[in-house]
Design a protein that fits this description.
By secondary structure, this protein is an alpha+beta fold. It has helices at 48-59, 68-77, 103-106, 110-123, 127-137, 168-184, 205-210, 219-222, 246-250, 260-267, 305-316, and strands spanning 16-19, 22-26, 29-33, 36-41, 83-86, 96-102, 151-159, 191-203, 253-256, 270-274, 292-301. The strands form 2 sheets. Strands 1, 4, 5, 6, 7, 8, 9, 10 and 11 form a 9-stranded mixed β-sheet that branches. Strands 2-3 form a two-stranded antiparallel ribbon. A hairpin with a 2-residue loop joins strand 2 and strand 3. Helix 1 crosses helix 2 (68-77) and helix 10 (260-267) runs antiparallel to helix 11. The longest helix has 17 residues, at 168-184. The protein starts with 15 loop residues before the first strand and ends with a helix. Residues 1-13, 20-26 and 216-244 have low confidence and may be disordered.
């Protein structure tokens, strides 16, 4: 179901956002703005292959070792929770997806059991994160309620590289509304924690200057920055009057693919970066193209979800 509305003044569960055709001057350059409409839809059965591809992008090199088709089926079975973004109407391909799966409820599902095993193996590098996840996942389905939430929700968020980060705040607003409606209908979405999977990449500022397309996006344009709570994002170009030493430019740094991950990290109680099991070695077969991609796990207490909703648009910026 699609519901139209304003991205800046949301009134319904599914909305339409527009970007106008205009010419603007930015940093001394003429930038042509294309007219694009972003429509927000519930996940539909015909979205299966596109959503599976987005999940494959999210899990990167390890995607082939997981049953992402089974995970996609669960996403499509959730009639009350989740959104996609399209530009060609309801029958078009989704370019972004955001949803949440209750891992406690679905942990006996073979696809989710496999994914949970994978996540726990990657969380093992951080003993406190592993202990927290193990404890939460051990909670029986019947022991979580509205008054005493104890389950963990896996947030799955991915989009194509050319999709603007500004579509994310309205998607999270819709997710919050849908979770509340689902709970009002006695659906099992009573979370004590939310678990986020995402990707990061390792590169020096020099590498990005030499090949701005190495990570498929320009980190300065997409809002990516060096990870770390309380740290300012390090841009690949120095501001006027600022000096970045040659040593700093050559040092490998961690950059996020999606701007919102920097903000989510500030609200998370646990965070770890892990290597993909099937990642090719850098410069393997003499190919030096691209950057080293890794996975990231972030665990956030669900009571901080309202802070995420309140702050994410200010952090990323509105969709005009």
């Amino acid at each position: 179901m699609q519901v139209d509305g304003s991205a800046q003044q949301p009134t319904n569960s599914k909305r339409k956002a527009e970007k106008d055709d205009d010419d603007e001057e930015e940093n001394g350059e003429d930038v042509e703005m294309l007219d694009v409409e972003f429509d927000f839809f519930d996940p539909q059965e015909h979205d299966y292959h596109s959503i599976k591809l987005l999940l494959s992008q999210l899990l990167s090199h390890d995607a082939s070792s997981l049953d992402l088709g089974g995970v996609t089926n669960l996403i499509l079975e959730q009639k009350l929770v989740g959104s996609t973004v399209k530009t060609d109407g309801a029958k078009g391909d989704p370019y972004a997806v955001l949803t949440v799966l209750n891992l406690n409820v679905h942990k006996e599902n073979p696809a989710i059991a496999e994914l949970v095993k994978y996540i726990l193996s990657k969380a093992s590098a951080d003993s406190s994160l592993l202990a927290a996840l193990t404890e939460i996942l051990a909670v029986p389905v019947a022991e979580s309620s509205a008054s005493n939430p104890k389950h963990v929700g896996l947030v799955l968020s991915e989009r194509l590289v050319n999709m603007p980060a500004q579509i994310v705040p309205p998607m999270y607003t819709m997710l919050a509304e849908e979770l509340q409606w689902a709970k009002d209908d006695a659906e099992p979405y009573h979370f004590s924690h939310l678990l986020f999977l995402s990707r990061v990449f390792i590169a020096s500022s020099d590498e990005l200057e030499d090949d701005p397309n190495a990570a498929l996006n320009d980190p300065e344009d997409d809002g990516r920055g060096k990870l770390g709570a309380g740290e300012k994002k390090r841009k690949k170009k120095a501001k006027k009057g600022e000096h970045i030493s040659s040593k700093e430019k050559q040092e490998a740094q961690v950059w996020v693919y999606h701007a919102e991950d920097d903000f989510i990290a500030t609200l998370s109680s646990h965070k770890t970066i892990f290597a993909y099991s099937s990642a090719p070695k850098k410069n393997e077969d003499g190919d030096s193209f691209g950057v080293e991609t890794k996975g990231q796990i972030m665990l956030m207490e669900a009571v901080k979800f309202p802070q995420l909703l309140e702050g994410i648009e200010a952090f990323i910026g509105p969709l005009h």
